[in-house]
Design brief:
The structure holds 2 protein chains of 2 kinds. By secondary structure, chain A is an alpha/beta fold. Chain A has 10 helices and 10 strands. Chain A has a domain of about 140 residues: P-loop containing nucleotide triphosphate hydrolases (Rossmann fold), CATH 3.40.50. Classes of the chains: A alpha/beta, B mainly alpha.
Amino acid sequence: MLRAEDLHVYYGGIHALKGISLRIDLGRIVSLIGANGAGKTTVFRVIVGLVKPRSGAVHFMGGEITRLSTHTIIQRGIAVSPEGRRIFGNLTVMENLELGAYNRTFAESKSGVEWVFSIFPRLSERQAQLAGTLSGGEQQMLAFARALMSRPKLVLLDEPSLGLAPLMVQEVFRAIEQINREGTTILLIEQNAVAALSIAHYGYVLETGAVVLEGTGMELLKDERVRKAYLGEE
Amino acid sequence: MSATLFVQQLINGISLGSLYALIAIGYTMVYGILRLINFAHGDLLMVAAYAALYGMLLFSLPWFISFPLAIIATGAIGILLDRAAYKPLRQAPRISLLISAIGASFLMENLALVLIGGVPKAFHRPNCFSHVIIIGGLHIPVLTIYSPLVTLLLVLGLLYIVFKTRAGKAMRAASRDFEATRLMGIDLDRIIALTFLLGSSLAAASGIMWAMKYPQINPFMGVLPGLKAFIAAVLGGIGNIVGAVLGGFLLGLFEILIVALLPDLAEYRDAFAFLLLIGVLLFRPTGIMGEPFIE
């Protein structure tokens, strides 16, 4: 479904991605794990066209999207719940959701709202509130829900559990599995490597801009290097 | 000052203020999205006034066709201004944008000077805007009543667009976070173009009313009203549409009342407007409506 080939990205003089390749098959949950600064978020930014790679290519649903503008890429069926939530604090919860379905019809937007409210009932209680007044966890949910509003084929989730209370973390992971079962493909960035790999069909481990390890979620969970580096085992 | 005179001045102030308000909206909307003081904005008044005049003179169009056409043309020039002067600088530091704005302003003024000449032209005011109503000692030109009414209608229409339509939501989103807006699949350049279109059209409406109020038009006619409207936008709280409208009306009243109460200092009314700006910047830089966002 999505294939990234040999991506090289430079930020000024810094070589941020050093030839990353990855593939996401239809219907899968794929996790990217790695320390801060390993380049996970940069991979996201390249996929949605916010950063143009110096070389390499991204293919999505059979077409190359490397040089397309961000809004065109999103319109092809990718959605993002970005790092740091990036919700519109000056708009209401409902307006945030409606913007998520910007390129959909009014009816699609309405049914999308019903769908995400069924996944995150708490947002329904808050729908008329300004998004900036939500708690951190609720804002995280809103960012996630907003990404689902366009009924994307592929959702990129950047740290969806960051800063959430344990109960909320469970809720978010439950939601990820639920929408995946309903047919949405997911690319997940997570600090919480155990949780991320437990639900992932496939995973990539990034270190300083390169893929150092890849395999099924189970394989990576068992891998000694992963356990040492990311699961805190000695 | 007699009560009649006071009421008369009040009406004049509101009328003048409504013209400032329409211009101030354009400043505040562009600022809300690009964080740019669009110093070429005032010159759009001049563009609209000439377009309206030539529509009537050269093509013998009736005013009710010529005026809307002039507004549309000015809106298009507003978009062109963004494309030519600001879009290439989206990633540039903000000071570059500001310099580009000043350059664009000079370009428009001097282009008009070359093409049309510096001799002021008489603006042909349609008869239906020339009546004067006399009630109980008050002398009220109908235009003085029409301007605030037109302004009110246009502002209501604008607020509807900004707060109730999909594109309006996208504009408010863009005023908060460009990148997140693009991640919604929104073509940011179109939203910015829409912002310029709306702001410039409102300035055009103001420019035409201005030309009817002071029917001598010249290539530099937009400079002072532009600066005054900028003061109004800052007074109201730049980035805030309702604030800009409020600031426009307040500035209009302030100016007229200065003239009415201190007739000896009437010559200095512009200076008082700038004093007001300095005062606002010193004591309440966020203006009346506070937060620097379109909300």
